[in-house]
Amino acid sequence: MSHTKQQEHNGSTMDPQKIERVYTNYAGMYDQTFGKIMHQAREAAVIGLKVAPSERVLEVGVGTGLSLSLYPRNCEVVGIDLSLGMLEKAQKRLEEHQLGHVTLQRMDASQMEFSDDSFDTVMATYVVTAVPDYRPVISEMIRVCRPGGRIVMLNHFSNGNKFIAAVEKMISPMCAHIGFRTDLSLNTVLEGTSLMIARKEKVNPFRFWHLVECVNAKNGHNHS
Ligand SMILES: C[S@@+](CC[C@H](N)C(=O)[O-])C[C@H]1O[C@@H](n2cnc3c(N)ncnc32)[C@H](O)[C@@H]1O
Fold first, then answer.
1. What is the phi-psi region of residue 65: left when phi exceeds 0, alpha when psi lies from -120 to 50, beta otherwise?
2. How many angstroms is it from 63 CA to the middle of ligand 1?
3. Which residue of 137, 147, 151, 168 is 20 to 30 Å from 194, comparing CA positions?
4. Do residue 101 and residue 173 come from a single domain?
């Protein structure tokens, strides 16, 4: 692997303890800051899923649970996160909105405790660039999603534009301090996986983020 590719894979200085600490400290103001700015796209992403009755959905890195009330009540949603502080906020939200179809678990997305093929849809909003290493997380998302199921990512992916890429790389180490990186491309994330892009849209704010819906084509299943 080239040096640049290696850096793109391992460019993160984050580790799980740091992520947990950063997000638990941040939990109190998350909804009013990042959570609020990014809500329009999160809302469009979840509503656009058109989740079917009885569908089993996994929300990876569920955070404070801002998307949870958007899922229909006739499906089943499991939310996982590393940060206890974020999960406590999500739990309060479940109680406030009486979301009996949602359960939460503290779990590392890179080592999930679910069996293979447990979910129809696996959703990750603003998570792929917020984890210490996206590779085990993507491979766990693929493992726990059934063949032909959906894997959906709402995320910022680094742009092919050289100027923007240079700016992104410059600001990435700073972003790492708040648990985020900006230098990861979608091609790098999907390379060598069984994921096939079914839909890709630019979304707000500034159409700088991407909503990417993939079919989990593992075991040769290339349709849902
Ligand atoms: C930017 S927040 C996004 C939260 C939420 N999905 C949203 O749309 O607001 C990223 C979340 O990923 C969680 N996270 C980071 N690494 C994780 C891991 N390895 N396993 C589970 N959750 C993780 C963080 O604790 C944080 O809650």
1. left
2. 5
3. 168
4. no
